[in-house]
From TrEMBL:
Gene source species: Rhizobium tropici
Domain of life from the UniProt record: Bacteria
Matches recorded under InterPro entries: AAA+_ATPase, ABC_transporter-like_ATP-bd, ABC_transporter-like_CS, ABC_transpr_MalK/UgpC-like, Mo/tungstate-bd_C_term_dom, NA-bd_OB-fold, P-loop_NTPase, Transp-assoc_OB_typ2
Location(s) in or outside the cell: Cell inner membrane
SMART domains found in the cross-reference section: AAA (SM00382)
Pfam families, alphabetized: ABC_tran, TOBE_2
UniProt cross-references to PROSITE patterns, sorted A to Z: ABC_TRANSPORTER_1 (PS00211), ABC_TRANSPORTER_2 (PS50893)
Family of this protein: Belongs to the ABC transporter superfamily.
Name listed for the protein in its UniProt record: ABC transporter ATP-binding protein
GO MF terms held by the record: ABC-type transporter activity; ATP binding; ATP hydrolysis activity
Main location: membrane
Keyword tags: ATP-binding, Cell inner membrane, Cell membrane, Membrane, Nucleotide-binding, Sugar transport, Translocase, Transport
Membrane topology: Peripheral membrane protein
Protein backbone atom coordinates (compact mmCIF):
# COMPACT_ATOMS: atom_id res chain seq x y z
CA UNK A 1 0.00 0.00 0.00
CA UNK A 2 1.35 3.43 -0.79
CA UNK A 3 0.82 7.10 -1.37
CA UNK A 4 1.83 8.20 -4.90
CA UNK A 5 3.03 11.76 -5.40
CA UNK A 6 3.42 13.33 -8.84
CA UNK A 7 5.41 16.56 -8.69
CA UNK A 8 5.95 18.93 -11.66
CA UNK A 9 6.01 15.99 -14.06
CA UNK A 10 6.40 16.78 -17.73
CA UNK A 11 6.63 14.57 -20.80
CA UNK A 12 7.85 15.52 -24.27
CA UNK A 13 7.83 13.22 -27.28
CA UNK A 14 10.42 14.95 -29.44
CA UNK A 15 9.14 18.49 -29.99
CA UNK A 16 5.62 17.57 -28.81
CA UNK A 17 4.75 18.36 -25.19
CA UNK A 18 2.24 15.63 -24.21
CA UNK A 19 2.07 16.36 -20.45
CA UNK A 20 2.71 19.82 -19.03
CA UNK A 21 3.99 20.31 -15.50
CA UNK A 22 1.57 18.10 -13.51
CA UNK A 23 1.28 17.93 -9.73
CA UNK A 24 -1.15 15.82 -7.67
CA UNK A 25 -1.15 13.23 -4.89
CA UNK A 26 -2.86 9.85 -4.72
CA UNK A 27 -3.38 9.03 -1.04
CA UNK A 28 -2.76 5.55 0.31
CA UNK A 29 -5.75 3.32 -0.43
CA UNK A 30 -7.49 5.74 -2.76
CA UNK A 31 -9.30 4.80 -5.97
CA UNK A 32 -7.96 7.57 -8.16
CA UNK A 33 -9.19 8.49 -11.65
CA UNK A 34 -7.23 10.11 -14.50
CA UNK A 35 -10.01 11.56 -16.66
CA UNK A 36 -10.05 13.53 -19.90
CA UNK A 37 -10.77 13.41 -23.63
CA UNK A 38 -8.76 11.37 -26.11
CA UNK A 39 -5.17 12.60 -26.44
CA UNK A 40 -5.16 14.72 -23.25
CA UNK A 41 -2.19 12.84 -21.80
CA UNK A 42 -3.85 10.59 -19.22
CA UNK A 43 -2.31 7.33 -20.49
CA UNK A 44 1.12 8.98 -20.68
CA UNK A 45 0.69 10.19 -17.07
CA UNK A 46 -0.32 6.69 -15.92
CA UNK A 47 2.60 5.12 -17.81
CA UNK A 48 5.03 7.51 -16.10
CA UNK A 49 3.53 6.74 -12.68
CA UNK A 50 3.86 3.03 -13.42
CA UNK A 51 7.38 3.18 -14.84
CA UNK A 52 6.54 2.30 -18.46
CA UNK A 53 7.61 5.75 -19.64
CA UNK A 54 10.32 8.03 -18.24
CA UNK A 55 9.33 11.62 -17.40
CA UNK A 56 11.22 14.38 -19.24
CA UNK A 57 11.37 16.26 -15.92
CA UNK A 58 9.78 16.20 -12.47
CA UNK A 59 9.56 13.62 -9.71
CA UNK A 60 7.32 10.65 -8.90
CA UNK A 61 7.24 9.17 -5.39
CA UNK A 62 5.68 5.84 -4.43
CA UNK A 63 5.49 5.29 -0.67
CA UNK A 64 7.91 8.18 -0.11
CA UNK A 65 10.57 6.77 -2.44
CA UNK A 66 11.50 8.70 -5.62
CA UNK A 67 10.93 6.21 -8.46
CA UNK A 68 10.89 8.49 -11.53
CA UNK A 69 13.82 6.74 -13.18
CA UNK A 70 12.99 3.21 -11.96
CA UNK A 71 11.48 0.66 -14.30
CA UNK A 72 8.00 -0.83 -13.77
CA UNK A 73 9.51 -4.14 -12.64
CA UNK A 74 11.34 -2.34 -9.81
CA UNK A 75 8.24 -0.55 -8.47
CA UNK A 76 6.20 -3.44 -6.96
CA UNK A 77 3.01 -2.52 -8.82
CA UNK A 78 0.49 -4.35 -11.01
CA UNK A 79 -1.42 -3.49 -14.20
CA UNK A 80 -4.83 -4.24 -15.63
CA UNK A 81 -5.14 -3.23 -19.28
CA UNK A 82 -8.09 -2.91 -21.60
CA UNK A 83 -7.07 -5.82 -23.78
CA UNK A 84 -6.80 -8.17 -20.79
CA UNK A 85 -3.36 -9.48 -21.91
CA UNK A 86 -3.92 -13.03 -20.70
CA UNK A 87 -1.83 -16.01 -21.82
CA UNK A 88 -4.19 -17.81 -24.20
CA UNK A 89 -2.39 -21.17 -24.01
CA UNK A 90 -2.74 -21.39 -20.20
CA UNK A 91 -5.89 -22.09 -18.20
CA UNK A 92 -7.30 -19.63 -15.65
CA UNK A 93 -5.41 -21.09 -12.67
CA UNK A 94 -2.06 -20.91 -14.51
CA UNK A 95 -2.73 -17.34 -15.67
CA UNK A 96 -3.41 -16.19 -12.11
CA UNK A 97 -0.48 -18.20 -10.68
CA UNK A 98 2.00 -16.92 -13.22
CA UNK A 99 3.26 -13.79 -11.38
CA UNK A 100 3.83 -15.86 -8.22
CA UNK A 101 5.49 -18.80 -10.00
CA UNK A 102 7.82 -16.44 -11.85
CA UNK A 103 8.79 -14.93 -8.47
CA UNK A 104 9.80 -18.45 -7.34
CA UNK A 105 7.04 -18.83 -4.71
CA UNK A 106 6.52 -22.35 -3.30
CA UNK A 107 3.74 -24.45 -4.90
CA UNK A 108 1.62 -24.78 -1.75
CA UNK A 109 1.72 -21.02 -1.11
CA UNK A 110 0.81 -20.30 -4.76
CA UNK A 111 -2.18 -22.66 -4.53
CA UNK A 112 -3.33 -20.94 -1.33
CA UNK A 113 -3.07 -17.42 -2.81
CA UNK A 114 -4.83 -18.41 -6.04
CA UNK A 115 -7.67 -19.98 -4.04
CA UNK A 116 -8.05 -16.76 -2.01
CA UNK A 117 -8.14 -14.57 -5.11
CA UNK A 118 -10.58 -16.91 -6.88
CA UNK A 119 -12.88 -16.67 -3.87
CA UNK A 120 -12.71 -12.84 -3.80
CA UNK A 121 -13.52 -12.67 -7.52
CA UNK A 122 -16.02 -15.56 -7.40
CA UNK A 123 -14.28 -17.49 -10.16
CA UNK A 124 -13.56 -20.76 -8.30
CA UNK A 125 -15.73 -22.66 -10.81
CA UNK A 126 -13.68 -21.65 -13.87
CA UNK A 127 -10.13 -22.15 -12.54
CA UNK A 128 -9.44 -25.15 -14.79
CA UNK A 129 -11.07 -23.74 -17.91
CA UNK A 130 -9.05 -22.56 -20.91
CA UNK A 131 -8.97 -18.78 -21.50
CA UNK A 132 -10.36 -19.18 -25.02
CA UNK A 133 -13.83 -20.24 -23.93
CA UNK A 134 -14.41 -17.49 -21.35
CA UNK A 135 -16.86 -14.57 -21.59
CA UNK A 136 -15.55 -11.00 -21.65
CA UNK A 137 -16.51 -10.51 -18.01
CA UNK A 138 -14.75 -13.67 -16.84
CA UNK A 139 -11.62 -12.72 -18.79
CA UNK A 140 -11.71 -9.36 -17.07
CA UNK A 141 -11.99 -11.07 -13.67
CA UNK A 142 -9.03 -13.31 -14.49
CA UNK A 143 -6.97 -10.26 -15.54
CA UNK A 144 -7.86 -8.57 -12.24
CA UNK A 145 -7.03 -11.83 -10.41
CA UNK A 146 -3.58 -11.92 -11.95
CA UNK A 147 -2.99 -8.33 -10.87
CA UNK A 148 -4.16 -8.69 -7.25
CA UNK A 149 -2.59 -12.09 -6.52
CA UNK A 150 0.80 -10.51 -5.77
CA UNK A 151 -0.49 -7.95 -3.28
CA UNK A 152 1.51 -5.11 -4.83
CA UNK A 153 1.91 -1.54 -3.53
CA UNK A 154 -0.46 -0.10 -6.16
CA UNK A 155 -2.63 -1.02 -9.13
CA UNK A 156 -2.63 0.76 -12.47
CA UNK A 157 -5.62 0.30 -14.76
CA UNK A 158 -5.85 1.78 -18.26
CA UNK A 159 -9.47 1.77 -19.49
CA UNK A 160 -9.85 -1.81 -18.19
CA UNK A 161 -13.54 -1.95 -19.10
CA UNK A 162 -13.23 -0.29 -22.51
CA UNK A 163 -13.84 -3.50 -24.45
CA UNK A 164 -17.09 -4.40 -22.66
CA UNK A 165 -20.59 -3.41 -23.74
CA UNK A 166 -22.32 -0.64 -21.79
CA UNK A 167 -24.52 -2.71 -19.49
CA UNK A 168 -21.79 -5.15 -18.53
CA UNK A 169 -19.32 -2.34 -18.16
CA UNK A 170 -21.39 -0.78 -15.41
CA UNK A 171 -21.68 -4.11 -13.63
CA UNK A 172 -17.90 -4.68 -13.79
CA UNK A 173 -17.27 -1.11 -12.64
CA UNK A 174 -19.32 -1.83 -9.51
CA UNK A 175 -17.44 -5.09 -9.00
CA UNK A 176 -14.05 -3.38 -9.31
CA UNK A 177 -15.06 -0.68 -6.87
CA UNK A 178 -16.42 -3.26 -4.38
CA UNK A 179 -13.21 -5.25 -4.71
CA UNK A 180 -11.20 -2.11 -4.02
CA UNK A 181 -13.31 -1.39 -0.94
CA UNK A 182 -12.51 -4.88 0.41
CA UNK A 183 -8.78 -4.74 -0.39
CA UNK A 184 -8.11 -1.02 0.13
CA UNK A 185 -5.19 -0.97 -2.34
CA UNK A 186 -4.08 2.31 -3.95
CA UNK A 187 -5.49 2.24 -7.49
CA UNK A 188 -4.91 4.62 -10.41
CA UNK A 189 -7.48 4.24 -13.17
CA UNK A 190 -7.57 5.90 -16.61
CA UNK A 191 -10.90 6.63 -18.27
CA UNK A 192 -12.43 9.08 -20.75
CA UNK A 193 -15.90 8.34 -19.34
CA UNK A 194 -16.89 11.08 -16.88
CA UNK A 195 -19.75 9.02 -15.44
CA UNK A 196 -17.43 6.09 -14.71
CA UNK A 197 -14.98 8.50 -13.05
CA UNK A 198 -17.70 10.09 -10.92
CA UNK A 199 -19.21 6.74 -9.88
CA UNK A 200 -15.99 4.91 -9.06
CA UNK A 201 -13.42 7.49 -7.98
CA UNK A 202 -12.49 8.79 -4.53
CA UNK A 203 -10.63 11.55 -6.36
CA UNK A 204 -10.36 12.65 -9.97
CA UNK A 205 -7.72 14.47 -11.98
CA UNK A 206 -9.30 16.13 -15.02
CA UNK A 207 -6.80 16.66 -17.85
CA UNK A 208 -7.02 18.61 -21.10
CA UNK A 209 -4.21 19.16 -23.65
CA UNK A 210 -1.61 17.83 -21.22
CA UNK A 211 -2.72 20.16 -18.41
CA UNK A 212 -4.23 19.16 -15.06
CA UNK A 213 -7.33 21.37 -15.09
CA UNK A 214 -8.56 20.26 -11.67
CA UNK A 215 -7.92 17.64 -9.01
CA UNK A 216 -10.40 16.78 -6.25
CA UNK A 217 -13.31 14.69 -5.01
CA UNK A 218 -16.09 13.98 -7.57
CA UNK A 219 -18.55 16.23 -5.77
CA UNK A 220 -16.07 19.12 -5.49
CA UNK A 221 -15.35 18.90 -9.19
CA UNK A 222 -19.03 18.74 -10.08
CA UNK A 223 -20.14 21.53 -7.73
CA UNK A 224 -17.09 23.80 -7.98
CA UNK A 225 -15.49 23.34 -11.40
CA UNK A 226 -12.25 25.32 -11.61
CA UNK A 227 -12.56 25.94 -15.36
CA UNK A 228 -15.17 26.02 -18.11
CA UNK A 229 -13.56 22.93 -19.61
CA UNK A 230 -14.14 20.90 -16.42
CA UNK A 231 -17.68 22.28 -16.06
CA UNK A 232 -18.50 21.15 -19.57
CA UNK A 233 -16.73 17.80 -19.46
CA UNK A 234 -18.44 16.63 -16.25
CA UNK A 235 -22.22 16.22 -16.17
CA UNK A 236 -24.81 15.21 -18.74
CA UNK A 237 -26.29 17.29 -20.25
CA UNK A 238 -23.30 19.55 -19.53
CA UNK A 239 -23.38 22.84 -17.67
CA UNK A 240 -25.01 25.73 -19.60
CA UNK A 241 -22.97 28.88 -20.21
CA UNK A 242 -24.81 32.18 -20.53
CA UNK A 243 -22.22 34.47 -22.06
CA UNK A 244 -22.49 38.21 -21.44
CA UNK A 245 -20.46 41.39 -21.10
CA UNK A 246 -20.53 42.59 -17.53
CA UNK A 247 -18.66 42.98 -14.33
CA UNK A 248 -18.19 41.15 -11.08
CA UNK A 249 -16.42 42.90 -8.20
CA UNK A 250 -14.55 41.22 -5.37
CA UNK A 251 -17.17 40.10 -2.91
CA UNK A 252 -19.79 40.72 -5.60
CA UNK A 253 -22.92 38.66 -5.25
CA UNK A 254 -24.95 39.62 -8.31
CA UNK A 255 -24.53 39.72 -12.05
CA UNK A 256 -26.81 41.52 -14.47
CA UNK A 257 -28.12 39.35 -17.31
CA UNK A 258 -29.70 41.76 -19.80
CA UNK A 259 -30.92 43.90 -16.87
CA UNK A 260 -32.15 40.89 -14.89
CA UNK A 261 -30.20 40.58 -11.61
CA UNK A 262 -29.07 37.05 -10.83
CA UNK A 263 -27.69 36.23 -7.40
CA UNK A 264 -24.41 34.31 -7.50
CA UNK A 265 -22.08 32.98 -4.78
CA UNK A 266 -19.49 35.47 -3.45
CA UNK A 267 -16.73 36.08 -5.99
CA UNK A 268 -13.02 35.52 -5.32
CA UNK A 269 -11.80 37.63 -8.18
CA UNK A 270 -12.73 40.88 -9.81
CA UNK A 271 -13.44 40.93 -13.55
CA UNK A 272 -15.02 43.28 -16.05
CA UNK A 273 -15.51 42.14 -19.62
CA UNK A 274 -16.65 38.85 -21.09
CA UNK A 275 -18.21 36.65 -18.42
CA UNK A 276 -20.08 33.35 -18.53
CA UNK A 277 -22.72 32.36 -16.00
CA UNK A 278 -22.49 28.59 -15.53
CA UNK A 279 -25.77 26.89 -14.69
CA UNK A 280 -26.28 23.14 -14.36
CA UNK A 281 -29.50 21.88 -16.04
CA UNK A 282 -30.91 20.67 -12.70
CA UNK A 283 -30.48 24.14 -11.15
CA UNK A 284 -32.98 25.82 -13.48
CA UNK A 285 -36.57 26.16 -12.28
CA UNK A 286 -39.69 27.33 -14.07
CA UNK A 287 -41.20 30.39 -12.41
CA UNK A 288 -44.07 32.34 -13.98
CA UNK A 289 -43.08 35.43 -11.96
CA UNK A 290 -39.51 35.59 -13.29
CA UNK A 291 -38.69 38.41 -15.69
CA UNK A 292 -36.01 36.24 -17.32
CA UNK A 293 -37.89 34.39 -20.04
CA UNK A 294 -37.21 31.94 -22.82
CA UNK A 295 -39.04 29.98 -25.48
CA UNK A 296 -39.28 26.18 -25.25
CA UNK A 297 -37.68 24.52 -28.28
CA UNK A 298 -37.81 20.85 -27.33
CA UNK A 299 -38.92 18.56 -24.51
CA UNK A 300 -37.26 15.21 -24.00
CA UNK A 301 -39.22 12.97 -21.62
CA UNK A 302 -37.04 10.75 -19.38
CA UNK A 303 -39.56 9.32 -16.92
CA UNK A 304 -39.30 11.19 -13.62
CA UNK A 305 -37.40 14.08 -15.21
CA UNK A 306 -37.37 15.80 -18.57
CA UNK A 307 -34.74 17.75 -20.49
CA UNK A 308 -36.23 21.00 -21.76
CA UNK A 309 -34.28 22.97 -24.38
CA UNK A 310 -35.00 26.70 -24.10
CA UNK A 311 -34.02 29.61 -26.33
CA UNK A 312 -33.03 32.51 -24.03
CA UNK A 313 -31.64 36.02 -24.66
CA UNK A 314 -28.24 34.38 -24.03
CA UNK A 315 -28.61 31.41 -26.35
CA UNK A 316 -29.93 27.89 -26.02
CA UNK A 317 -29.87 26.22 -22.62
CA UNK A 318 -31.00 22.86 -21.29
CA UNK A 319 -33.00 22.45 -18.06
CA UNK A 320 -33.61 19.19 -16.22
CA UNK A 321 -36.94 19.54 -14.42
CA UNK A 322 -39.51 17.15 -12.88
CA UNK A 323 -41.71 15.69 -15.65
CA UNK A 324 -44.91 16.80 -13.95
CA UNK A 325 -43.95 20.46 -14.59
CA UNK A 326 -45.45 20.58 -18.03
CA UNK A 327 -43.56 22.45 -20.74
CA UNK A 328 -44.80 22.79 -24.29
CA UNK A 329 -42.84 23.56 -27.42
CA UNK A 330 -43.18 27.26 -28.42
CA UNK A 331 -44.35 28.22 -24.90
CA UNK A 332 -42.71 31.27 -23.26
CA UNK A 333 -41.59 30.45 -19.72
CA UNK A 334 -40.03 32.39 -16.85
CA UNK A 335 -36.78 30.96 -15.47
CA UNK A 336 -35.08 31.01 -12.08
CA UNK A 337 -31.55 29.86 -11.35
CA UNK A 338 -30.62 28.27 -8.03
CA UNK A 339 -28.19 30.94 -6.80
CA UNK A 340 -26.18 28.64 -4.47
CA UNK A 341 -25.20 26.45 -7.40
CA UNK A 342 -24.13 29.02 -9.98
CA UNK A 343 -20.57 29.59 -11.18
CA UNK A 344 -19.23 32.65 -12.97
CA UNK A 345 -16.30 32.20 -15.36
CA UNK A 346 -13.94 34.59 -17.06
CA UNK A 347 -15.04 33.77 -20.61
CA UNK A 348 -11.64 34.48 -22.11
CA UNK A 349 -9.40 32.43 -19.77
CA UNK A 350 -12.12 29.95 -18.75
CA UNK A 351 -11.18 30.29 -15.05
CA UNK A 352 -13.92 30.20 -12.41
CA UNK A 353 -14.31 33.51 -10.52
CA UNK A 354 -16.64 32.31 -7.72
P1 LIG B 1 -6.36 8.15 -25.38
O1 LIG B 1 -7.54 7.97 -24.50
O2 LIG B 1 -6.73 8.41 -26.81
O3 LIG B 1 -5.30 7.10 -25.21
P2 LIG B 1 -4.79 9.85 -23.69
O4 LIG B 1 -5.40 10.98 -22.97
O5 LIG B 1 -4.50 8.64 -22.92
O6 LIG B 1 -5.68 9.53 -24.95
P3 LIG B 1 -2.03 9.82 -24.41
O7 LIG B 1 -2.06 8.42 -24.94
O8 LIG B 1 -1.38 10.04 -23.09
O9 LIG B 1 -3.49 10.42 -24.37
O10 LIG B 1 -1.33 10.74 -25.49
C1 LIG B 1 -1.18 12.13 -25.30
C2 LIG B 1 -0.55 12.70 -26.56
O11 LIG B 1 0.79 12.24 -26.71
C3 LIG B 1 -1.29 12.30 -27.82
O12 LIG B 1 -1.30 13.42 -28.69
C4 LIG B 1 -0.44 11.20 -28.39
O13 LIG B 1 -0.53 11.16 -29.81
C5 LIG B 1 0.95 11.59 -27.93
N1 LIG B 1 1.82 10.42 -27.74
C6 LIG B 1 1.59 9.41 -26.86
N2 LIG B 1 2.59 8.49 -26.89
C7 LIG B 1 3.48 8.94 -27.85
C8 LIG B 1 4.73 8.45 -28.35
N3 LIG B 1 5.27 7.33 -27.89
N4 LIG B 1 5.32 9.20 -29.31
C9 LIG B 1 4.79 10.35 -29.74
N5 LIG B 1 3.63 10.88 -29.32
C10 LIG B 1 2.97 10.18 -28.37
Amino acid sequence: MAQIRVHNVRKDFGAFNAVKSSTFTVEDGEFFMLLGPSGCGKTTTLRMMAGLELPTSGEIYIGGEEVGMKRASERDIAFVFQMFALYPHMNVRKNISYPLVSQGMKKAEVAKRVAEVAKILRIENILDKPIGGLSGGDRQRVAVGRAIVRNPKAFFMDEPLGALDAEFREHMAQELRALHDRMGATTVYVTHDQLEAMQMGDKIVVMNHGVVEQFGKPQEIYDWPATKFVAKFIGSPPMNFLEFDGSLGTGGTHVSLAGHMVRVPMSREEHTGELALGVRPEHIRFNDDSAYRGRVIAVEYLGTTQIVTIDTPHGEIKARTPSHQLAHVEELIGLDFDSRSLTVFNSVTGAALV
